[in-house]
Amino acid sequence: MSETTEVVPKKGLPRLVASTGDIYQTAITESHAREEAALNGSIGNGLNYRTIIGPKSNQPNSNIFRSAEWTSDGTTLVAVTEDNCVRTFIVPPDLLTSPDPQTLLPYSISPLPTTPYCISPYPFFSLSDPSTTLFLTSLHSQPIHLRSLLYPHIAATYPLIHPTTEKYLVPNSLTWTPTGTHFLAGTDSQIHLFDVSRVNSGPMETFTTGKKRKSKSSTTPTFSSSSVDFRNGSNSSVRSIISTLAIHPVTNNLAAGTYSRRVLLYSSPYQDGELYSVINLNSLPDRFKSTARGNGITSISFADGLGNRIIIAERKSEVVYCYDLRYTSEPWAVLTGRKAATNQKLGVSFAPVYGDRTNVVLAGGTDGIVNIWEPFASSGSVGDGGESNIFIKPVDSFSAANDPVTSVAVHASGAVVATSSGERKSLKSGHPETQDSGTDEDDDKGDTPEDSLWDNGVRVWTV
Question: Rounded to whole angstroms, how far apart are CA atoms 107 and 88?
Answer without folding.
Answer: 6
